[in-house]
Amino acid sequence: MKRLDGSSLRMYLLLVKASVRSRMQHPFNFVVGTIMAAFVNVIDFALIAVVLRRFGQVQDWSMAEVAYLYGVIVLCKALYRTFASDVHQLEKYLVSGDLDQLLTRPVPVLLALMSQNVTLYTAEPLLGVTMVAWSLQQLMAAGQVGWAAVPLTLLMVVTGAVILFAIGLATATAGFWITRIRELQVVTEDASKFAAQYPLSLYPKWLQYVLCTLIPVGFANYIPSLYVLRGEPGFWVMGATALVAGLCLMLSLRFWRFGLSRYQSAGS
């Protein structure tokens, strides 16, 4: 198995540049995809906003606070998908046998996979930044948060992206045994990300437990937001969030290496 070193990272960056250059050869597709992604996300939150505007608050969570949760998870997902888009698409490599080609690259297989079809997301980051900026402005005006919320939010986005990447990588690794992972991804990535758009306190206790342990998407935005927005239960939550992100990343990488060692290539 190839080791990660300086030459591997340089080769990875070259592959990323080549992938971006290839994607940008079709600017019309890029523009249309950006517009559609923005439209879908705006409509998605608009439905939430209508409910909040009608009822005012949902279990004492204001529209600004829910917008903050939504904006942060959107930014986390955009960051994860920008740098590791095809980790989510591993099934097609396994079904077609194209993963064998990545095994011949002079970089670790995971980096080779991450360098494929790199997508420069613009709609999601723009929407996420807009929503987070609006929500923080509203909360600052109300005296609920201060400027310290800005760097803490940046930390949340980074750790949240790591957590989403780890969840996505662990799910993809399961494909080395079951091949078809689309349905599993619906549960571990799509459904859990959708659930994290809302305060987890809305859900039954058993589901809160699942979203904070088995699929720890709650640590991507909800858990640290309790401190950023409300000062609860204390600053240690930010350290715990970073620790969870690091632990998830370590475990998912180990699981990936184990799964890859069990992979039977098309030529085997």
TrEMBL record:
It comes from the Bacteria. It comes from Paenibacillus chartarius. The chain crosses the membrane at residues 30-55, 61-80, 148-178, 206-223, 235-256. The keyword Membrane applies. It holds the Pfam family ABC2_membrane_6. The keyword Transmembrane helix applies. Keywords: Membrane, Transmembrane, Transmembrane helix. This is ABC transporter permease. The lineage of its organism: Bacteria, Bacillati, Bacillota, Bacilli, Bacillales.
